Amino acid sequence: MARRTFREETTKEGASRWRRPLAWFTAALLLLSSVEPVQAEASRVLWAWERPEHLLTLPPGVGVAAVVGFIRLRGDAIEVMRGRRFPLQIAAASSLVAVVHVEIDQSVPLAWTGALRDRVVSAALSFSAGHVAVQLDMEVRQSQRRALLDMLGGVRAGLPSGTHLSMTALASWCDGEAWLAEAPVDEIVPMLFRMGQDGLRLRARLAAGGDFRLPACRAAVGVSLDAPVTVPPGRRVYVFNPRPWDETSLSAALRNHPP
What we know:
Layout: H1 12-15, H2 21-32, E1 36-37, E2 44-48, E3 53-55, E4 62-74, E5 77-83, E6 88-90, E7 95-104, H3 114-128, E8 133-138, H4 145-158, E9 164-170, E10 187-191, H5 198-207, E11 220-224, E12 236-240, H6 247-256
Parallel strand pairs: 1-7, 2-4, 2-12, 3-6, 4-7, 7-8, 8-9, 9-10, 11-12
Antiparallel strand pairs: 4-5
């Protein structure tokens, strides 16, 4: 997923917002409470990022992965924690994945401790409460992989039985980094956009009929409307739109990746 930063949250006003996550989370629940959980037939899922989105008319087989919570880590602390700030309208029959985005301030070393893990896991579980499909979106450096696996393990243990747990992943993680196979998730979503030069070789391999080297990454894939790519068959496809969804962009997404 295209990354957003929390720079605006580090102002004096923003720095206090972590104290009010419950209010935002409650508002998000009011917007999303009428939708159904993600179902197997939702073979195409639209990412609804942090902006107003109106997705009231979706065809069968198309779901929504909506950001419901943001967590930003700095050093040994949670610097920012908040829920969704913008309205999201979804048809009552649409399937839903609740997305929690976790970001690390890379300007200082991450001091991953048991206490910080517990706080992050607790926040993620609070944001995703009531949903039976949850996705964790977190990008880490090589030295921070254990933190990601620890967080996923804690969330997995805290979710009710039967909850579908998904995670996004850099495409490079799925192409030779065996550590990712340890992730205790039901679904890994490699993102085939914003990949840089290394992504060109992977895109060429996929176009030639190849696949990811890690078998755990062969159930789903993430794409963007502004970065067309060949998707191997049999995948659940998550589609990111750099702009708000409308009829034109929805038609383009379904034309490129029909359910």
